[in-house]
């Protein structure tokens, strides 16, 4: 669900956030219109507004875990965690986390990839939020949800700054609510 | 400069939350795992607060964070001091036009990249990473910023491994750390 449909319609902060995101055509390969959030991070006000919108939504939901997907989820997750008093748990590519981990594979366009979480980082019954910069097919977020549910946590919601067209209309991922701030400004046919 | 020498009461709590994992990623390395610090909201907040207290009001407009653990600490600091956050990334991750800086590893080389146009000449910058070992990565980060005409005010890390003498590889720029691991 998009923020504009969920209480923030007409919020001027959303327009500024959307406009601060740069579209890079044909990255990483032809046909992909890459949503570059690094330009949002260059705008202190828009970056702060992004974090504030998430914090306002999640601060009273009893969330004790913010899990961020490597690497761009690391840019947003910790600030949200700090503001709501939750712990931050990085979900990482294989062999990056030094301790004992659990792994969850997920499907890419060609082949598979894997997401890992430290054993013991999250306790059964904890209420959690998963954060990434962007959602496309939802494959990565679905793997993240499975990791948290495997250790007995409840995933309250998945939150992303940008939702690609593939995600549009998806209010839930495998039953978990999805909250997205903005959609891409340009949805052009590149073919 | 080390905060531990100043004996700020928050430092002890931070140090005890860092987990040492022996023989990772290879035998002989005592890996400093900061993920356990992130599991303690108070200790994590204290970590950020210590940096923010040092850098607020110093006219720093850029916080550059080294991928990937620098992405965890850099943005909260940037937000609190009103600076922009600039990620310094491994090759081919940043989508736009980049400048690159190569640096030497124990075996071989690696490369750090920054987006062209992210930093303007004359901007005052901070470089943030979780740990300084030999200083090679931080030196590459500093070079990227200076290449575009920014002034590196200081490098800031949670942890220093003093035996590896990274502090002396920062081209004369100061280093601020919260804890040392001997």
UniProtKB/TrEMBL annotation, chain A:
It holds the Pfam family Pribosyltran. The keyword ATP-binding does not apply. Residues 44-170 form the Phosphoribosyltransferase domain. It comes from the Eukaryota. GO terms for cellular component: cytosol. Its EC number is 2.4.2.7. Transmembrane segments: none annotated. Homodimer. This is adenine phosphoribosyltransferase. The lineage of its organism: Eukaryota, Viridiplantae, Streptophyta, Embryophyta, Tracheophyta.
From TrEMBL, chain B:
One of its GO terms (cellular component) is cytosol. GO terms for biological process: adenine salvage; purine ribonucleoside salvage. It is found in: Cytoplasm. Residues 41-163 form the Phosphoribosyltransferase domain. Homodimer. HAMAP family: Aden_phosphoribosyltr. This is adenine phosphoribosyltransferase. It comes from Carya illinoinensis (Pecan).
